[in-house]
Design brief:
The chain is of the alpha/beta class and 445 residues long. It contains 14 helices and 15 strands. Strands 4-10-9-8-7-5-6 form a seven-stranded mixed beta sheet, sandwiched between helices. The protein has a four-stranded mixed beta sheet with strand order 1-2-3-13. It has a four-stranded antiparallel beta sheet with strand order 11-12-15-14. The chain binds pyridoxal-5'-phosphate.
Length: 445
């Protein structure tokens, strides 16, 4: 007999990116702790997804829950035009952990809203209109942010906002530039960007937005020199460099922000997800001083009723303090170097279907192929229905064994909460090891 929650979910809820029927049968989740969550039938799942790569601090961190309860008892909400201790402390802490002179924060309720505001700021700051973004990117599902998005989820929303230009970023495993080394990929991807800028007129370009490590579209770690090169181009052309750190920020890559891996300071940096692990909706844009100066005397024409929400800001304050006390960023780096990296790379040697393993920190992708030599993907690009069957079977095999995965296209992403223990990480990889037998059966190479 299905529970009332299950019945109402099926009858009354339309979930994200989903048809009503496709979502029927999703677990009704009733609890969680650390890297685990469980459903109403008592099934426990090791969360190798951090949900949507956002529960960085793990489920139900007791200090974070307590901080929210405490603030809820004091003051839940107050208009965004008023000052509040949690709001200003959250801004101070974000500025403290952000690189360079990224110092002034505009809070939103989501990553998509952070994207929208970042491109508006870039346009207002420069007086220019065009925004560049990668193919193979995700920036949110509001109208502007989905237009910037460089993958099939954009198609249903087209035509999008005017002035958006897509270009190819680096991805050596499937190089758009016939590169065979990291250095070649870096040089050619930068030359490609310069060429597209030339044809669009660099003086028309307000901003270049990019995920410093591309997330949903493949955990694409750029070659050393690429982000530095983009920084130089932006400096030369007066373009606002926008790092979308919604997924990669707050410890995911083993640094506070992904750009820290290359010591690059963007002009604007967007964040959400890991800032408070999604315990409450929160995102934002942090700007460097010179961009903030544009809004010192002239008002910034953007706002949200729930912007800098008091409860959400209180949770961000608690979360950032917990990160520091428990050295969560350092832990993510070590778990990547000592457990996730080596053990996932070992899968590449053992399995015919594993074409490439890449990542850093607690941010990894296993790219599955039919043939290691030709690199033909295990399922075609944007596969659905019967064409996606091999990946659907891999996903089912992982879930049956108690692992909750993040599977997209021909890849299994490994993005557990940053607090995962080495033992739990090994346990999860052992499950992936077993489930890959399903993929190997489709791999001829
Ligand atoms: C890189 C990136 N930017 C923006 C977003 C949008 O964030 P939200 O879903 O909070 O609107 C996401 C969400 O996955 C993301 O990964």
């Amino acid at each position: 007999m299905p529970s009332q929650a299950r019945i109402s979910d099926t009858e009354h809820l339309l979930h994200s990116w989903s048809s009503i029927n496709a979502r029927a049968g999703a677990p009704v989740v009733v609890g969680g702790e650390g890297a685990w969550f469980w459903d109403e039938d008592g099934n426990r799942f090791l969360d190798f997804s951090s949900q949507l790569v956002n529960v960085n601090i793990g489920h139900q961190h007791p200090k974070l829950v307590a901080a929210i309860q405490e603030q809820a008892a004091k003051l839940c909400t107050i208009g965004p035009n008023l000052a509040n201790d949690q709001r200003s402390e959250a801004a101070r802490l974000v500025a403290e952990v952000a690189p360079g002179d990224l110092d002034v924060v505009f809070f939103t309720n989501s990553g998509a809203e952070a994207t929208e505001n970042a491109i508006r700021m870039a346009r207002l700051h420069t007086g220019r209109s065009k925004i560049f973004s990668f193919y193979r990117s995700y920036h949110g599902s509001t109208h502007g942010s989905i237009t910037l998005t460089g993958e099939p989820r954009r198609w249903a929303s087209e035509p999008g906002i005017p002035g958006v230009v897509h270009f190819m970023g680096p991805y050596l495993y499937r190089s758009s530039f016939n590169a065979t080394t990291e250095q070649e990929e870096c040089e050619r991807a930068l030359a490609h960007l310069e060429e597209v800028l030339m044809y669009e007129g660099a003086h028309n370009v307000a901003g270049i937005i990019m995920e410093p490590v591309v997330g949903t579209n493949g955990v694409l770690v750029p070659p050393d020199g690429y982000l530095q090169g983009v920084r130089e181009i932006c400096n030369r052309e007066g373009i606002v460099m926008i790092a979308d750190e919604v997924m990669a920020g707050f410890g995911r890559t083993g640094e506070w922000f992904a750009v820290d891996n290359w010591s690059v300071v963007p002009d604007l940096l967007t964040f959400a997800k890991g800032v408070n692990s999604g315990y409450l909706p929160l995102g934002g844009v942090i700007m460097r001083r010179h961009v903030a100066e544009s809004f010192r005397d002239k008002p910034y024409m953007g706002g949200l009723t729930y912007g800098a929400h008091v409860l959400a800001c209180a949770s961000a304050v608690a979360s950032i303090n917990i990160f520091k006390e428990e050295k969560i960023v350092e832990h993510a780096q070590v778990i990547g170097q000592e457990v996730l990296g080596p053990q996932l790379r070992a899968l590449q040697d053992r399995h015919a279907s594993v074409g490439e393993v890449r990542g850093l920190g607690a941010f990894w992708a296993i790219e599955l192929v039919k043939d290691k030599t030709t690199r033909e993907a295990l399922v075609p690009f944007n596969a659905a229905g019967p064409a996606a069957k091999p990946m659907a079977e891999v996903t089912a095999a992982l879930k049956q064994r108690g692992l909750w995965p993040f599977v997209i296209g021909n890849r299994i992403h490994v993005t557990p909460p940053l607090v995962i223990t080495p033992e739990e990480a090994r346990q999860g990889i052992a499950i992936i090891d077993e489930a890959l037998a399903v993929a190997d059966a489709y791999a001829g190479g």
